[in-house]
Amino acid sequence: MKRILLSVLAACGCLLAAAQKGPVEIDLWPTGAPNDSGLTGPEQPLENGRLANVTHPTLTVYPAAKPNGMAVVMCPGGGYIRLAMNHEGHDMAPWFNNLGITYAVLKYRMPNGHIEVPVSDALRAIEILRERCTEWGIDRRKIGIMGASAGGNLATQAATHYSSAADRPDFQVLFYAVTRIGSRPDAMFGENPSQERIDRYTTVKQVNASTPPAFIMCSADDTSVPPVNSIDYFLALREKGVSATLHIYPSGGHGWGFQDTFVFKTEWMAELERWLRTLE
Asked: Which pTM does this prediction carry?
């Protein structure tokens, strides 16, 4: 009877541990954010899992069942006016978890002309993973930032504008990221920004020797964010002696994320997995 009771308790413990491995949503600023973009009103769900007017930032963490110590924060794209939360966010969680990587999706605030607002959200997300690294089996030296399109820009902002060891990402993974200011700078800066402000947040100009290593990918036929953004960022990293790899696929356009319709999906997955293993 005693053995049976112990077996039941052990089974319950395993079930509880498994339950605790499910996604956890964390309020980034429970006592109030340090800055404000001026947006008000409710967030606006759109088709295909997109979300606009984001004013309440959260981090949804998917702990790995068998953690290898690595973690990554994903910043979905959407032109800094909406977020593609599924194919550039939550859909990737099982794949990363299967690699032993704790995966987190950042729902960041829209800048509305105040780019420092989403940047502070991204850096806070890195801090949260470091603060709770023991809880999720994370090595505090193996926490990265990842992003797609405008979310890729946010990832490069975090990689070049961190304030300390607490919020510095250890690596960056970029899907067709914006690294130069494109045709809609008003979403980032508002009207009539100074050249100094533009240069400060043009991340290809902010790379230095302490910028974390990068895995960069894009499509040659991307007309929304031309591949020169990825190429120039790679060259800037190389010039500063930072380890980086660049993959340019011949077709696919823009915004493919984790979609099966991207014909080179298996290639980027294999190449990214191989690269991440070099960081272990």
From this structure: 0.91
